[in-house]
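User: I'm curious what two different proteins look like when written out as structure tokens. Can you demonstrate?

Assistant: Sure. I'll show them one after the other, since each token string lines up with its own sequence. Here's the first protein:
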Amino acid sequence: MSLYDDNRDTLWHCLTTLFSPPPTLLQRKAEAFVTSRLRHYNAVLFVETATETFGCVVADVLRRARRTSHCIVNLDEVTDPALLREIRAALAAKSGYWTLPVLFLNGRVVPQVGAIRDA
């Protein structure tokens, strides 16, 4: 990829951001839900339910890590379906994955978690 391609991609991103509609209140609320947890904890695991087998294994590993502040977010506790849909969209935008569980370490997604689950 050349410098020209990088500049063209950056220009495209700026233009689409500039002309896209502003986020709705619900989208801002979902974004705040996700980013507040990523900001306050070193490790954040988003799971579908508290009983999901793979999520439980990853959660158990997180609980054993004594030096890591962690948060496990069960999305089945979110009662508003519209907010849940926006939280999933915010997670997909941040991680690149639509499937759960999604693990973030120090604000960055751990892609191996999704790959292990899908294998």
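Here's a second, unrelated protein for contrast:
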Amino acid sequence: MTMHKKALVLTIVMGLMLTWSLASCNGNADGWGQDVAAFDADSVKKELTVSLTADSVSPTCTLRMNIIYSKADSLREANRQLISSGIIVPDYFSIGGGMSDIPLAVDSFIRRYTAEYQRDYRSLYEVDKDHLESYNIEYDVNTYVRQGRKGIVVYTAEARYCSGALHDTQTLVARNIDMDGKRMLTLDDVLVSGSEKMVTELIVKQLCEQYDAEDIKQLNEKSIFNGIDPYPSRNFMLEADGVTFIYNADEIATHDVGRILVKISYSDINPYLKVRV
């Protein structure tokens, strides 16, 4: 077995072990993990570094990508939806129908990304060679699949973008694959129409518990939802024991707060779900 396949198998096994552990705690272990098996995962792993100029010392752009996809013919549309949903950025595939062949899509992404890097940065660097480090770019994306609630595979992409900025940008993007419908679910597919206000109230209540606040005003004082109206993130996970809403760093709070995860148990959010758990 190649190192690449060993890494893929390890990723899937770790996800299954976590899933079975959670399911056992819920007294519902039988049958769990079958959705991940049915997803029939494979992955494409690429790493490439290109130089900005032909100089002996030049800024570089490095891409490292490990993108999981389904080999199942029945999930080709789900593959297309995934690669077009912002798991890698810029989202080149949201226009023009996207691509269901993920290895080809990743190759296409890398070619376009590196070509645009050389095109857009070269002229700037030519008049600013004293700041070489500012033109170095690293972009890493690693993806994972694991069992969500029954019938759902949770697909996550962890990305790190490093440039001349003060902070690296680290993001978590989650997507939910409906294994019965063979498609990716959006928040509108999950929540009952008109329930956003009630779900937002649940999120604010949970945030108050997490950050030792009495109300939204005290959350604002901690920079959370300060100056913006609270909302349920469209970046979410349908997990075994609840719905987790993801807010990446700088999204709803200052950078020092970091990434915020808000899990609402199914016992609380069930009244607002189209499919109750």
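A detail about the second structure: The domain at 3-185 is CATH 3.30.565.40 (Heat Shock Protein 90).
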